[in-house]
Amino acid sequence: MVDALHPSVVKPQPPTLRCDRCRDVFGQPFSDFFYRDANGPFGWRRWCKACYSEAPSIKRRNAERAAGRVGGAGEAA
């Protein structure tokens, strides 16, 4: 796999990845189960997409977006 930030750098890919939160093991293609992260191991986030979407901070952000409060800390009201 080619690193997104450094196209000439190829990160080796294992046959499976394990989610650090739920401990489930996923096979390739990893893009079906993990979000990209250039700084993560092998270029993927450490939590699977299911666990990431259940994180309290993500649930709170999604609820705020659904309620129409789509601002961030740096955004003027």
Query: Helical region count?
Result: 2
- In whole angstroms, the N-to-C terminal distance is 42 Å
Total beta-strand segments: 4
What is the helix content?
Answer: 10-25%
Structural class of the secondary structure composition? alpha+beta
- Could you say which overall geometry the principal axes of the C-alpha atoms support? elongated
Order of helices and strands: EEEEHH
Largest sheet: 2 strands, antiparallel
Low-confidence stretches: none
Q: If strands are numbered along the chain, what order do they take across the biggest sheet? A: 1-2
Average pLDDT number: 81
Strand coverage percent: 15-25%
Rg from C-alpha positions? Answer: 16 Å
Q: Could you walk me through the main structural features you see in this protein, from its secondary elements to its overall organization?
A:
The protein has a domain at 16-66. The chain is 21% helix and 18% strand. The protein has helices spanning 49-53, 56-66, and strands at 16-18, 25-27, 34-36, 44-48. The strands form 2 sheets. Strands 1-2 form a two-stranded antiparallel ribbon. A two-stranded antiparallel sheet has the order 3-4. The radius of gyration is 16 Å and the shape is elongated. The protein starts with 15 loop residues before the first strand and ends in an 11-residue tail after the last helix. The mean pLDDT is 81.
Write the layout of secondary structure elements.
Layout: E1 16-18, E2 25-27, E3 34-36, E4 44-48, H1 49-53, H2 56-66
Antiparallel strand pairs: 1-2, 3-4
Care to give the gist of this entry?
This protein is α+β, with helices and mostly antiparallel strands. Helix content is 21%, strand content 18%. The protein has a domain of 51 residues.
